[in-house]
Amino acid sequence: MHRNVSKIKLFALAVLFLLPAVAFSGCATTAGPTTSASGLSSGNVALSTKMSSSIFLQPVAPQDKIVYVSARNTSTATGLNFKNELISALISEGYRVTNNPKEANFMLMSNVLYIGVESNNYTVAGALAGGFGGAFIGSRYNSGTSTVAGGALGALAGGIIGSMFQNKNYMMVVDIQLEQRQAGTYTTNSTNASQGTASNITTYNSGIKNWAIYRDRIVSQASAMNLVFASAEPLLKQQMAHSIANLLP
User: Fold this and answer.
1) Is 114 left (phi over 0), alpha (psi -120 to 50) or beta?
2) What is the maximal distance between C-alpha atoms in the chain?
3) Please, is 34 exposed, middle or buried when counting C-beta atoms within 10 Å of its C-beta (0-12, 13-18, 19+)?
4) 8 A C-beta contact, residue 170 and residue 229
5) What is residue 231's three-state secondary structure?
6) Taking the alpha carbons of 237, 222, 215, 199 in that order, is the dihedral positive or negative?
7) N or C: which end of the chain has fewer CB within 10 A?
8) pLDDT digits over 64-123, tens only?
9) Whole-angstrom Cα distance, residue 93 to residue 121?
C-alpha cells in the first residue's frame, strides 16, 4: 500500500513538473514569417549560410546588371523549384533577368545537390569540405536533445522532455558557377585520364572567351526545436537565394 501511494505521488509530481514544459512546447516549434534585422533568424528558426570560398566580381554600371539564370536540381527532392527564389532575389538587388545569354553580362548557374535533414552522412561541415563538385564528407553529428536530471523524478521527466524537445537541423547544399563578361579573358580546361598502369593522357580544350568563371559551394542551415521540413524548406530556399544574389556586384 505504501509503495502504491509513493508511485502516485511521484506521478503527480511529474505531471506538475511537465505542465509548464508542455505549455512552452506550443510556442517553441513555431516558425514565424518575419526575419530579424540580422537576417540570421526567422521566428524561432536560426538560419546560417556558409561558403567553401569567397567570390569577388567586378562592379558594373546599373544598366549593365543583366543576368542569365539556369537552375538545376539533382537532389532527391522532387518538385523543388528554386529558380523562382533566385530570380526574385536578383530582381530585388537591381538585376534584370534575361533568357538570352548573348545580352547577359552575368551568368548564374546553380545545382541543388541536397535539401533535407542534417545527419551523420550529410553535414554542413562535410558538404563544405567536399567543395564545388566534390562529394559530401561525413563527419560527427549531434542532434542535441534536451534532458532534465534530478533523481527518479528527473529521469522520468527528462525522458519525456527529451522526446518532446529535439533540436532539428535541416540544410540545403548548392553548387554555383558565376560567369562575368570580361573582354580578353580566356579559359582553358584540361582533363586527365589514365591509360594502362603507367601512363596518363591529358586532353586540353579551349574554354569560354571573354568570360571570367567562378565556382563555389554554398550551404544554408535552418535549426529549431522540433522543426519540420515543411517549415524549413521555404526558409532554406529564401536564405540561399538571398546569399547567392548578393554575390553579384
Assistant:
1) beta
2) 92
3) exposed
4) yes
5) helix
6) negative
7) N
8) 999 999 999 999 888 888 999 999 999 999 999 999 999 999 999 999 999 999 998 889
9) 35
* Separation in Å, CA 157 to CA 153, 219, 237: 6, 36, 37
Residue bearing cell 580544350: 205
What pTM, to 2 d.p., does this model score? 0.69
Q: Residues near 34 by Cβ (< 8 Å), separated by ≥ 6?
A: 42, 43
Beta strand residue intervals within 74-198, DSSP E = 96-98, 106-117, 167-195
Cell of 112: 541543388
Q: Which three cell numbers stand for residue 42?
A: 526567422
Q: Which amino acid is at 165?
A: F
Report the alpha-carbon angle 126-83-108, nearest 5: 75
Find the range with the poorest average confidence among 2-16, 26-40, 135-149, 207-221: 26-40
What burial class does residue 8 get, using C-beta atoms within 10 Å of its C-beta: 0-12 exposed, 13-18 middle, 19+ buried?
A: exposed
Distances, alpha carbon 185 to alpha carbons 9, 79, 135, 203, in Å: 79, 37, 30, 21
Count Cα neighbours of 122 within 13 Å in the Cβ-side half-sphere. Answer: 16
Look at the chain and count its residues. 249
For residue 67, the cross-strand partners are: 97, 106
